[in-house]
Specification:
The structure is a single chain. The protein is α/β, with parallel strands linked by helices. It folds into two domains: 3-71, no CATH class; 76-224, Rossmann fold, CATH 3.40.50. It has nine helices and nine strands. It has helices at 3-14, 41-53, 84-95, 125-131, 147-160, 171-183, 188-192, 207-224, 227-235, and strands at residues 19-24, 30-34, 57-61, 64-71, 76-80, 99-103, 119-121, 138-142, 164-167. It has a five-stranded parallel sheet with strand order 7-6-5-8-9, with helices on both faces. Strands 2-1-4-3 form a four-stranded antiparallel sheet, with helices on both faces. Helix 3 packs across helix 8. This is XdhC/CoxF family protein.
Length: 236
């Protein structure tokens, strides 16, 4: 890899953007590909798969061999609310390979004793997110039921293009939430992407079961991100 390509690769990684180096094993030539770049044909299909799976490896396309070296940002889950669901979600998410952060200004809930070995912010979400902004490799789960705490990070997640945005609450509660977010300027398309009630519908009842449902839905969103858009563009 030449110096300029290496500098570009490192800059993309520092900015938490997905990038890969695609090397033609026949002639040794390589190119950097960013997630979202339009790469047509069978090689483009393999590149899309690699971005979703995060797995590097050799692929054969039309009689040529390519090595795909994928660099994905570490996926992150930001949970708004130091609640029982978050207590169960944090250790499970870490086991699944996610970085986890909990944000809750209520200091009675956001304590190290309740969240050992977890990045914890006993501050208002707007203060935390101004220093640690959301991005497309972040999932946001709003879990407090309190609009004063949940609404701003939900809107920030939609604006940042987070790969998953979910919110706890009934359909009635979510309807009122959508009205508030629309009044705050969120688009209809963005609002439709919020998963609410949060988590896969597995009949979860306890906080731990809800956490399982949320984590499963987040993993599904991570591994399928961009898939619908890719299918639509290739069908056009």
């Amino acid at each position: 890899m030449d110096l300029k390509a290496l500098e570009t690769l490192n800059a993309e990684r520092r900015a938490r953007r997905a990038v890969m180096l695609v090397t033609d094993l026949g002639d040794g030539s390589g190119r950097l590909v960013r997630e979202g770049d339009d790469l047509a044909g069978a090689l483009g299909t393999e590149v899309d798969k690699a971005f979703r799976s995060g797995k590097s490896g050799t692929v054969e396309v039309e009689g040529r061999a390519f090595f795909i070296n994928v660099h994905l940002p570490p996926p992150r889950i930001v949970a708004i609310g130091a609640v029982h669901i978050s207590q169960a979600l944090a250790p499970m998410a870490r086991i699944a390979g996610f970085d986890v952060e909990i944000i809750d200004p209520r200091t009675a809930f956001a304590t190290p004793e309740r969240f050992p070995d977890t990045t914890l912010h006993a501050e208002w979400p707007e203060d935390v997110l101004s220093q640690r902004p959301l991005d497309p490799y972040t999932a946001l789960a709003a879990l407090t039921h309190d609009p004063k705490i949940d609404d701003l990070p939900l809107k920030a997640a939609l604006e940042a293009g987070c790969f998953y945005v979910g919110a706890l609450g009934s359909r009635k509660t979510h309807g009122k939430r959508l009205e508030r977010l629309a009044e705050a300027g969120a688009s209809h398309a963005a609002l439709a992407s919020i998963s609410a009630p949060i988590g896969l519908d597995i009949g979860a009842a306890s906080p731990a079961e809800i956490a399982v449902a949320v984590l499963a839905e987040i993993i599904g969103a991570l591994r399928s991100r961009g898939l619908a858009a890719t299918r639509e563009s290739r069908a056009a």
